[in-house]
Fold each of these.
Amino acid sequence: MTATARLLIVGPQGSGKGTQGVRIAESYGIPVVSTGDIFRANIKEGTPLGQQVTAILDKGDLVPDELTSEIVRDRLSQPDAAQGFLLDGYPRNTAQVEHLESFLAERGEALDAVILLDVPREESLSRLSLRATEQGRSDDTPEAIGHRLDIYERETAPILEVYGAKGIVDRIDGVGSLDEITERIAKALAARGLRLAA
Ligand code: ADP
């Protein structure tokens, strides 16, 4: 049996969505499509895209919607995403939701579930300052972190209204151990009939 799951994971910076996204995608045998990872890989390799976006990421601003959406379309058109995917970091505002929805509709597809990892702002902030010390990400400065959290609250939270109206949002308590949180997500997805790969 092959699993099909088209998922989106949403949560504030520091919510642990990157870690949980990888765990969930592995158990479904689907690729993670993380726009942040794609941008960072391009910056590291010094590609033209990387050069175009490096200053934007360092400030904690959003890369232009058209460019981001084009990159995601390309990635989702690869064969390994045909049986499903887990999006992390995209769509991040309502304009991107419209892009994604029209792309999926063209293919006769739709998202199956939106996992919302709920974490209070103070918890996000303390996890992020820890990550700044451990990983040294150049956008983990206090200014860029605060800016990204503001953008999240202003632009990303509204996309949940769109998906909430479709009845596909699973709100998951993001405070707990890594395993506990993975288990909560897996249960919510199973309740939607999304089965793991055999
Ligand atoms: P975080 O969630 O901690 O901000 P991400 O890895 O998701 O980290 O994103 C890092 C940066 O990459 C963002 O601050 C932004 O500059 C850029 N980025 C990622 N996803 C998008 C997107 N969907 N639209 C525009 N910019 C994006």
Amino acid sequence: MKHYTKQYIAGVWREGSSDKQLETCNPYTNEMIYSYRAASTQDVDDAYAAAKAAQPAWAATLPEERRTYLKALANVVRDMEPEIFQLLMEESGGTRAKFAFEYGDTLKVIDDAMCYHMMMDGRIAPSNTPGKDNYIFKIPKGVVCVIAPFNFPLLLSMRSIVPAIACGNTVVLKPSSETPGSGFQIAEMFEKAGFPKGVLNVVAGRGSEIGDYIVSHPTPSLVSFTGSTEVGKHIGEIAGGLLKDVSLELGGNQVMIVLDDADVDQAAKAAIVGSYSHQGQICMALNRVLVTPKVYDQFIELFVKYSKQVKCGDPADDAVVIGPLINHDQVKKVEENINATLKAGGKVELEGKIEGNVISPWILSGVSNDMCAAKCEIFAPVTSIIPVKDEEEAIRVANETNYGLSNCIFTKDLYKGLELARRMESGMAHVNDQSITHEPHVMFGGEKDSGVGRFNGHWVVDKFTTEKWVSVQRTDRY
Ligand code: NAP
């Protein structure tokens, strides 16, 4: 297994120049996989200088040329499939099923981006001045800073990098310190696909050390951040002060509403996917399930039954659904949240085991929104079941959170489902499906503390471009 220890700047692999030596550990075995010298602020300067130098020529490439580069990138990603899986599994504890989702959607993101250049069409607007033509051009933003989280280090980096580059921007990526190898592996993909030097640069170092410097640097005109609400707000403050544009894809606290007329078996099976995919470490994962009285006991019975069938343990085992959390600190935090919820009156319906960093499913019932497990983004296979008396109470309880990313509702009355989904204060809401739903050509994004901005399709093209008015006076005006 190849391990990456060098930064990728201006098309050159070089050791970070910080005096900090950082280590990456396998979250399942807790063994150190590799160590590397972190990037310094000088490395950040060099990465931005390379991106800035490369951008005009990159923006001048023809649509067909850019498409050819992206096709080459997709081929490289296909060729590297086994090693990509191996790294995601070793570095972030991702299972085979999680890999299928992340890898498959990454290829779709690249595929869709092949036509983004062609979507950068401008307008010719009428003028009130005789002899004047008004042209509005859609142009790249310039240099884009991408900051990625640990949980889907491939997809959530590529979801920003690929559209940015497809629209004629160049990029500096800062991967999570938990999963820097995945960031460097992306650099290798771009190198192998033959992209010009400087189009993508990758600098890895701790956000607490170089993060503010990366965000406040004068070169990038857009910061595309995916991560926690806490860090996202901090980045938003810095960027706002500097009048830099941001795309902030942040945390969530999802609900599934199960109404009296729901197909309860479908809802329970969907809750398994929504709660346990990537051990609950997904921004769209289910935190809370709100159930109305007639189906409350039946839902719990089925959810517990299916949860007991979920295999937990070594992510290298293809049958495993729940692998390890990213590190031991996260495990301790989850344990504290569960204990606080039980102390506040929550009841255990299924007691999970904690073995190393692997937590098997916990199901808590009789929970209310003010209890820890329901209130915070739990980011683990722990689900809180909240009884609600009817659909009105369900909507009120669902919306009683600062987050607003992706919710879902189960009812056989599809029109009622649609109406209630529209009343949920979230960027996304699904009827008769679970909350972890992503289609790379459909809009993605949150409301409230879950973020600012939209991804995918024409939404991302708009985000990664700006518009410029150029007028031409054809006849003498003065
Ligand atoms: P995080 O702690 O916020 O870190 C995200 C990234 O920000 C990392 O690369 C981190 O670097 C960096 N960072 C930290 N401090 C920074 C600073 N001052 N300036 C610039 N960058 C800084 O999030 P995480 O734990 O990796 O990811 C989990 C969170 O992301 C959850 O809340 C989840 O819901 C959210 N998420 C949201 C979406 C979405 O699409 N809405 C998708 C996935 C995840 P270091 O690792 O070096 O600290």
Amino acid sequence: MELQNLMFEIENEIGYVTINRPKKLNALNSRTMDELNRLFNEIKYNDEIKVVIVTGAGEKAFVAGADIRELNELDMNSSRTFAQKGQAVFNLIENLGKPVIAAVNGFALGGGCELALACHIRIASTNAIFGQPEVNLGIIPGYGGTQRLARLINTGRAVEYILTGDMIDAKEAFRLGIVNHIYPAEELMEKANEIAGKIKSKGQIAVKLALNATLSSADLNLKEGLNLEANLFSLCTGTKDFKEGTNAFLEKRSPKFTGK
Ligand code: COA
């Protein structure tokens, strides 16, 4: 499938995915969701890519939501599949097996907020605005917002934002823990690159397993989670990167990880 609504490039082992419908504030229509599905399936199995950065084209929006023109056509026969398809795309991103950074450069509303929530690390420009305004349209979030926002900022806060549709500016998003950092818009990609650069310089098996273990904390009880952590910790000690990392420390030099 030719990419019409996404831009994609790989540079220095980082995959850059840009939602590219700036005239519609990068709203996610079906074509864009299909392209995201296709692209992230390729990224998942492309060993050249160690970290992914997702952002929106233009200066105004990350993604201003699902495409309301398409939403308007939904009925009770089509809408369940519509939501499940979107959820599957965002599950694919969350379970990609490599870190995904959302560089939120403006409006992240509805499906845009849900896309950011499915990414592993979120950073924002000072003009970023988050929100789940679906109630204004007579619907509820359908691409994971009720579940991921509640897990991230707690149920009471999520209920308020989802039931009022209130916007969350960058400072508030930082205070709530939705974003890790706020930067001036012109520095956002540079800072995303810095984080990606740090991550890709580490042993990649450890990165992958650490991501897996940490994400699992949302689904497992403490006993199960600690069991998983011990198993994955043990797996790491079978890697060349573990020997290299510990030897390098003892020899007072920088490690040269090979991802093996
Ligand atoms: N779906 C489809 N089109 C959208 C859209 C969406 N979610 N969000 C913005 N657009 C389109 C607008 O219709 C407009 O298109 P047009 O120029 O052909 O009329 C264009 O993007 C620019 O948006 P506009 O509303 O003119 O920009 P603004 O700066 O006045 O307002 C927002 C920005 C984000 C506040 C406003 O666009 C908005 O409320 N969007 C919908 C947000 C939403 O409810 N998202 C959740 C959907 S589930």
